[in-house]
Amino acid sequence: MSAPDREYLLDGVSINGLPKVSLHDHLDGGLRPQTIVELADEIGLQLPRSDASELGRWFAEQSNAGSLVQYLKTFDVTVGVMQTRDGLARVAREFVEDLHADGVVYGEVRWAPEQHLQRGLSLDEAVDAVQSGIDQAVRAVEATGGYIRVGQLVSSLRHNPGRTREIAELAVRHRDSGVVGFDVAGPEAGFPASTMRTAFDYLAGEWFPVTVHAGEAAGLDSIASALLDGRALRLGHGVRIAEDLLVERQDDENTYVSLGLLAQWVKDREIALETSPSSNLQTGAIAQWGESLVEHPFDLLYQLGFRVTVNVDNRLMSDTSLSRELSLLTEAFAYRLDDLETFQLNAAAAAFLPIEEREELVDRIALGFDAV
């Protein structure tokens, strides 16, 4: 049984059944292996493994290289089968189904439409195809008495900055039909948000919310550029903000830490950190602190009062689910249900929704945790 299909317990309570919020979840990183096999067969795409189970293991093995660049190479396969309207719609529909099965009540799915034009789709047609799949799944969940809401985050690829303004305009064009925000993804080192400043100026003028991958494969300068040039309201991963923390001393009960100006700014303004524990280990994002989850700066950031959120990044590559990520954190840091609830409330507060709808989401989460 793969990790996403397992049940995870804490104090006898199913983590899977708790209401959860997913903010950092890539569409092309969440495909079912069997779907990849079937879609590849339809378009004649050769795969590294033809059996779905073996293909799933291949993704997990290839993703443990300790390098973001190597990690990203696995997406050549998933993006390859997401080049038709039917393919995109199916992947999006199953994506939402899997979120619902994992207890997610609100999710934001990010993806880069510019990567899905190889078989003749336009940018707008690609966005419409994904939305059709999302809508179909949401209706199916509601028909069974369930609840889920999902919004699109349209991503631009930072190594193709000349197209960022076009993608920003695409996102704004679809703001009333499912797109809730804008993201910048791809190789981080060497591509700061400042190289896309024109697009970010446009988005700011349109009052359109932005999250930027920063503090994963690059450090404090990248985070600063995301905030100053990108006007980011959230940081994709953001774990390397811990480089701006100085542990001054420790005793048996306490750790005394001072914050640099950037870290203090992120904390004081409650800029959400979209951490993805398993992915952060796989890509080497936390290598300077260690190679195991217990060495992840997540807990230090949490204890210091940063708005930490827990995410999967790419379920397929990390062979994970949001419930599994939460379970791993409870094992590493002895968290209890109250802590898991805090992580969900943090995510709800940072969701790209109107304030009234965020408050409704907070109430839904609180009721779900109170019921256990």
UniProtKB/TrEMBL annotation:
Alphabetic keyword roster: Hydrolase, Metal-binding, Zinc
Essential cofactor(s): Zn(2+)
Domain of life: Bacteria
GO molecular function: hydrolase activity
One protein family per Pfam: A_deaminase
Residue ranges of domain Adenosine deaminase in the record: 19-366
E.C. code: 3.5.4.4
Transmembrane segments: none
SUPFAM superfamilies: Metallo-dependent hydrolases (SSF51556)
PANTHER family: ADENOSINE DEAMINASE
Family: Belongs to the metallo-dependent hydrolases superfamily. Adenosine and AMP deaminases family.
NCBIfam families: aden_deam (TIGR01430), PRK09358.1-2 (NF006847)
Protein name per Swiss-Prot or TrEMBL: adenosine deaminase
Native organism: Gryllotalpicola reticulitermitis
